[in-house]
Amino acid sequence: MASEETERQIEHLRTRKGVKCVIVMNLQGELVTTSVNEKSLDDEAVEAYHRLAYQILSGLKASIKQYSAQENLQYTRVRLKDSEVVIVPEEKFVVAVIQDPTAA
Which family does it belong to (predicted)? Predict the structure, then answer.
């Protein structure tokens, strides 16, 4: 379960304009918690974003390690047709924010 501080951070992110969903997973990609801000995102859509974020993160980390063992991914942003996925790996968990790219 996420700590109180983590829950506050998630709530802060979730209330930002354009944020559809916040996903927190452990470093192995297992879902820890989600906070959905858009009614159009059902459980299946959230799970699809969760898998997508983990696959992007895994691929980038492997590529970066091939480039340099001393480098670490700070964050990445991937823009899709109808959404943007921002992935931030931390020391013990990963946060993925799904947002509307047209919201300013």
Answer: Belongs to the GAMAD family.
Q: What is the DSSP letter of 29?
A: S
Q: How many angstroms separate the CA atoms of 19 and 31, rounded?
A: 19
- For domain 4-99, give the fold: Beta-Lactamase (3.30.450)
Q: Are 51 and 59 within 8 A, CB to CB?
A: no
Task: Assess contact for 96 and 86: CB atoms under 8 A.
Answer: yes
CA 45/CA 49 separation, integer angstroms: 6
For range 91-101, the mean pLDDT: 91
Half-sphere exposure of 75 (CA within 13 A, CB side): 8
25 Cα distance to chain centroid: 8
- For the chain, which residues make up each domain, given as ranges? 4-99
